Amino acid sequence: MTDKENTNGAASLLIVEDDPAMLVAFRDILESSGYQVATAASGGDALRKLKESTPALIMSDISMPGMSGIELLRKVREHDLDVPVILMTGAPAIGTAVKAVEFGAFRYLTKPFDLDELGQVVSRAARLYRIARMKREALEHLGKDKMLVGDRAGLETKFDRALDSLWM
Questions:
Q1: In Å, what is the CA distance from 144 to each residue of 55, 138, 153, 159?
Q2: In what order do the strands lie in the sheet with 57-61?
Q3: Does the predicted TM-score (pTM) go above 0.85?
């Protein structure tokens, strides 16, 4: 068992939402579908929880005080390139949608959304995360580069690490 699954094999999720009623609603819906759900009321709270363990999926509101969902996505990519991040918004905008894609968001959902659609998106993201982790573990076992890059956030993370290692 990994920190991504509970004892029943259900994927663990982290929901980041600053609206308490929405946070409880999302948690209840996904727990009733069998997921192990942790919650965070802000991006900073989510980052603290990510230091303890990495979930199989993160769902985050985009518009939050302090740290936006886009900023959280960038920070998540520094921590884990594989974990799917679903961004949600009640005020969709081309700019945030483009940034979401650039930084590797799994999905950009506009509120309100259909609960069946949410269930399908979460299920698919959790399955793809398991596959991505198995692929990364297999490549590490074979001695390949540990930091595979597939999106802009991955490139930025790798570049920042390279710059940090330089000495003049």
A1: 24, 9, 20, 18
A2: 36-40, 12-16, 57-61, 85-89, 107-110
A3: no
d(C-alpha 127, C-alpha 141), whole Å: 21
DSSP per residue over 9-72, as a string?
A: -PBEEEEE-S-HHHHHHHHHHHHHTT-EEEEESSHHHHHHHHHH---SEEEEES--SSS-HHHH
Integer Cα distance of 73 and 50 in angstroms: 12
- φ, ψ for residue 36 (rounded to 5)? -90, 115
Q: At what angle do helices 152-165 and 69-79 cross, to 10 degrees?
A: 60
d(CA 49, CA 38): 9
d(CA 68, CA 27): 20
DSSP string for residues in 65-91: SSS-HHHHHHHHHHH-SSS-EEEEESS
Reported as a single tens digit per residue, the pLDDT across 77-127 is 888 888 999 999 999 999 999 999 888 899 999 988 888 889 899 999 998
Provide the token pair at 125. 């993201």
